[in-house]
């Protein structure tokens, strides 16, 4: 059974940015697939996340940095061509 990552995905901000419901579902799918596969791996980092137009849209589901790094890379690769006016920024957070 897949875990619930809804507290890590800022749906309201994605909607405010004009991301379509189809694309939001794809982001949710990417997030869940990578998080379930990678788990809590990598350096212990707090406060990392993906921002679009200075709105935080993705938080980390664990302290390990590898999962969210892969998620943000795939999400940006998917959304950037569809929404070229949006500005994507990954916040690396702080090492714990």
How would you summarize the topology of this molecule?
Elements: H1 11-16, H2 21-38, E1 45-46, E2 49-52, E3 55-59, H3 66-79, E4 88-91, E5 94-95
Antiparallel strand pairs: 1-5, 2-3, 2-4
Helix pairs in contact: 2-3
Descriptive tags:
3 helices, alpha+beta, 3-stranded antiparallel β-sheet, 96 residues, single chain, globular, two-stranded antiparallel sheet
What spatial order of strands do you see in the largest sheet?
Answer: 3-2-4
| Mean pLDDT value | 87
Distance between the termini: 30 Å
* Overall number of strands: 5
Poorly predicted runs: none
Beta-strand share of residues: 15-25%
Radius of gyration: 13 Å
Overall 3D shape: globular
| Secondary-structure element pattern, one letter each | HHEEEHEE
What share of residues is helical?
25-40%
Major sheet size, sense and barrel closure: 3 strands, antiparallel
